[in-house]
Amino acid sequence: MTTKALSIKDIAKKANVSITTVSFILNGKAVEKNISTAVIERVEKIIKDDGFKPNQVARSLRTGSSKIIGLIVEDISNPFFSAIARLIEDKAYKKDYKIIYSSTENHPGKMKELINLFKSRQVDAYIISPALGTEQDIQALLDEHKPVVLFDRFLPSLDVSYVGIDHIEASYKATEHFLKLKKKNIALVTIDLEVEQIVNRYDGYKQAILDYKGNQNESLVLKVPFGQEKEETIAQLKELFKEHAEIDAVLFATNYLAISGLTALKEMEKVVDTDFSVIAYDDGDVFKLHTPQISALGQPLEEIAERIISLILMQLSSKEVLKTERVILSGELIVR
Amino acid sequence: MTTKALSIKDIAKKANVSITTVSFILNGKAVEKNISTAVIERVEKIIKDDGFKPNQVARSLRTGSSKIIGLIVEDISNPFFSAIARLIEDKAYKKDYKIIYSSTENHPGKMKELINLFKSRQVDAYIISPALGTEQDIQALLDEHKPVVLFDRFLPSLDVSYVGIDHIEASYKATEHFLKLKKKNIALVTIDLEVEQIVNRYDGYKQAILDYKGNQNESLVLKVPFGQEKEETIAQLKELFKEHAEIDAVLFATNYLAISGLTALKEMEKVVDTDFSVIAYDDGDVFKLHTPQISALGQPLEEIAERIISLILMQLSSKEVLKTERVILSGELIVR
DNA sequence: TCATATTAGTAAAACGTTTTAGTGTGGTGA
DNA sequence: TCACCACACTAAAACGTTTTACTAATATGA
Predict the structure, then answer these.
(1) Any residues with CB less than 8 A from the CB of A205 and at least 6 apart, and which?
(2) Residue B96 contacts A, CB cutoff 8 Å
(3) Per residue in B83-104, pLDDT tens?
(4) B295 near B173, Cβ under 8 Å?
(5) At A291, is the secondary structure helix, strand, or coil?
(6) Rg for chain A (alpha carbons), in Å?
(7) CA torsion, points A159, A163, A169, A172, in degrees to nearest 10?
(8) Pairing, β B161-165 against β B148-151
(9) A289: left (phi over 0), alpha (psi -120 to 50) or beta
C-alpha cells in the first residue's frame, strides 16, 4: 500500500546508468559533465514519467543549503506582518525559495530558540523583525556569514541590513498635518518600549510641535505598557480623553492602539470630527470604513517586501559577504 | 571565522565515547540502553557547555520524520487564516512541532506543487484548506497514510478528517434573525463557487426564508465571481442596492464581501440602521468599530485551531491509521 | 605510431544522524 | 568450573543525495 518514494537509485537502475549520471542530469550539469544527449533524454523521460522528485532533506544534508528562508515576526496574526509575509512568500516562491515562519511574541527566549531551530534545519537566510535583547543571537548569525535582513525594528548596535520606514519623518508629517489644521492640543498614544522605531515616532511628534509651537505639553503623551490587555488600554485611553478634554487631535503610534482608541471613543460616545481628529499608524480596512474615515500613515508594504527579498537574494547569490545596506522608505500620510 | 557547527562526532570525541552512546543520550534512551549515569552526566555536560544542537536535517534523513507540519491555506494575509495559523503555530510549538506554510491562491496547480514540495521535505503531517480540484493530491497523501486534516473547506468525496463549522445552521441562524425582526426583503451576497461551505451558506439562507415565508425571491441573491477585483464587486453591489431599493437586510457570505458591501454603502451614502440591517460572515475589528456596529457570524477560531491540532497530534502519535473524524462546530451570531 | 586529449561515463566518499547487531567483561548459580 | 546473563558500551550500515577523483574508450596531432 504505502509505496516508498522513489530515489535516485531507482531511476539509475531503470535507466541503466549510475546514480552520478542521474544526479548530474538533475542538476543541469549533464552537458558540462559530458553526458550524451541520448542518455540525458532517456533519463529525463524516466524522471518525468515516474514523477520522481529528489529528496530535499538528503540534498540539504549533503549541500548544507535548504532553499528555505526563515521568517521571524512578532506575531503572524498582526495584519502588518501577515501582509508582509504573504508578499515575501510570493516573491521568494518565484525564486524557488520557501518560507518557514514563526512568531516570537517579542520574547527574546523564543527568538533564541527559533534561531537555533532554523539553524539546525539549515535555512539559507533569515528575515527577522527582531525582539529586544537578541543582538547577540543575530550577531552570531552574522558571524557565520548567513544572509540576514531585519525589518520593521532595527537594532542600531548591529552592522546588518535593514528595511524600514523613517518613523521620525512619518510622525512629524502626521503631527504637522494636525498643526496646519490649527490643532491646539495634540495627543500621542504610544507604547513604552525603548526600541528605535517606537522612540522615533515620539521624536517626530515632539519635533513637529516644538518647531510650530515652541513648547510641548508632556501630559498629552500616553505611553501604554507593552503587552497590556486590550481592555486595560481602553480604560486608560478613556481616562486620558476625560481628563484632557482639551485634546483636539490624537496620533496613535500603532494600528492596535488606534483600534483600542477608536473603541474607547465609541464607548464614550465621543465622535471623531473636525473638532477631534485622529491619525492611525498603519492603514487598514478598519480605518477606511470607519465613520468618519480615519486618516492613516500607511507603510508601503509591497515595497518593503520587495526590498527585503531582493537584499536577501543578493546576499544569497553572491559568494563574498556583501556590505550591509539600510533601506529607509517613506510612510505615506493618507488624509481622509 | 565561520566555525562549523558541532556534530555528534565532536561530542563523542570530547567525551571519549562512541557516537552511538551520544545518540542514545540525546534521545533519552540512555537508561534503557544501559549507559552508566557517570557517562550520561559527563556527556550531557559537554553537550550543554558546547551548546550542541543535533542537525535536524540529518535526523530527518535518517528517521524519515521532520517534526514539521505543513500548513496550506488559501491566503495567509486573510485575517481568518492568519489568526488560525497563529493559534496552530502556538499549539504545535508546545508539542515540539514547527509549522511551514504556504498560500495557494486557490490554484490547484500551486497546491499540487506545494504538496510535492512538502513531501520532499518529509513533513510529518498536513493541515490543508483545500482548493477545488485537488482531491487526487490529497487522496495520494491519504494513500501514503500521512496524517491530514482539512479545515474551512471540505471535499465530500474524500474520507478525511475535517474541522469546520455548520454553515447551513449559521446562515439559517443569521437569516432567521432578520426574519424575526420582520425583515421583508433579505438579500444574500455570496460568491459563485460550487464548494460545500459556500453552497451551504446559500442553503441555510434559503431554507430559513422558505420556512418563514414560504417563497423566496431569487433576484435578491447576488453571486459575485470568485477572485473578482474589489472595485468591480463594489460597483456590482451598488447596482444591487440601487435596483432593489426594497432590500431591508443583507447577509454577506464572507468577510471580504462584507467589507466591499460596507464600502459600497458608504459610497452611496446609504446608512446601516434598523431599516437596513447587515450581518457579516466572520467577525473582526472592522465590524465592531463600524458605525453602527455590524452584527456578525463569528467562527470559534480558538476551538477550530485546537481541534485541528489535536486531530493531527492523535494521528501522529498513533501507530495505526485512525478513523477519520469530522468536527462540525457552531458559528456564533453576534448581534450588535 | 605513439602520446595526449577528449568523450562518456562511474565508484566511492561524504553530509550527520539513528539503529541493529554486536562485543567484552564481570557476576551468579549449579 | 562452566554456562549463562546482565551490564556497558560500540562498529557499521543506512537514509538519499552531491561531488571528487577516477577509468576506459575513442579521437587527434605530430
Answers:
(1) A171, A172, A174, A175, A186, A188, A221, A251
(2) no
(3) 999 999 999 989 989 888 888 8
(4) no
(5) coil
(6) 26
(7) -110
(8) parallel
(9) alpha
A77–chain B Cβ distance below 8 A for any pair: yes
Q: Contact at 8 Å (CB) between B85 and B92?
A: no
In the structure, how many helices (H) and strands (E) does chain A have?
Answer: 13, 12
Q: Which helix (H) or strand (E) holds A45?
A: helix A37-50
For the record, the C-alpha cell of B211 comes out as: 420556512
Say yes or no: B98 contacts chain A, CB-CB below 8 A: yes
Which cell numbers hold the place of B212? 418563514
Q: What's the whole-model pTM score?
A: 0.89
The reply to whether B182 has its C-beta less than 7 Å from any atom of strand C is no
CB-based contacts with strand D under 7 Å? A 4-9, 19-20, 23-24, 26-27, 52, 54-55, 58-59, 61-63; B 16-21, 24, 33-36, 38-39, 58, 61-62
Interface check B93 vs A, CB under 8 A:
yes
Lowest-confidence region among A209-213, B108-112, B220-224, B327-331: B108-112
State whether the beta carbon of B271 lies below 7 angstroms from any atom of strand C.
no
Per-residue pLDDT of chain A (336 residues; tens, 9 = 90+): 456 789 999 999 999 999 999 999 999 999 999 999 999 999 999 999 999 999 999 999 999 999 999 999 988 988 899 999 999 999 998 998 988 888 888 888 888 888 988 999 999 999 999 988 899 999 999 998 999 999 998 998 999 999 999 999 999 999 999 999 999 999 999 999 888 889 999 999 999 999 999 988 999 999 999 889 999 999 999 999 999 999 999 999 999 999 999 999 999 999 898 889 999 999 988 999 988 899 999 999 999 999 999 999 999 988 777 899 999 999 999 998
Distance measured from the CA of protein residue B25 to the C1' of nucleotide C29, in angstroms:
34
Tell me the C-alpha distance between B76 and B84, whole Å.
9
Identify all chain A residues contacting B103, using CB atoms and an 8 Å cutoff. 86, 89-90
Distance from residue A53's CA to nucleotide C14's C1', rounded to whole Å = 22
**Alpha helices, H only, B5-78:** 8-15, 19-26, 37-50, 56-63
DSSP secondary structure code for residue A218 in this structure = G
Nucleotides of D under 7 A from a protein CB: 7-12, 14-21
Estimate in Å the CA B9 to C1' C25 gap, whole number: 26
Residue appearing with cell numbers 506582518: A81
- With 50 as the cut, is the pLDDT of residue B1 above it? no
Find the CB nearest A82 among B56, B82, B116.
B82
- Check CB contact under 8 Å for B75 and A57: no
d(CA B336, CA B334): 6
Distance CA B118, CA A5 (A): 13
**Cβ–Cβ < 8 Å for B98, B92:** yes
Angle, helix B19-26 to helix B37-50, in steps of 10 degrees: 80
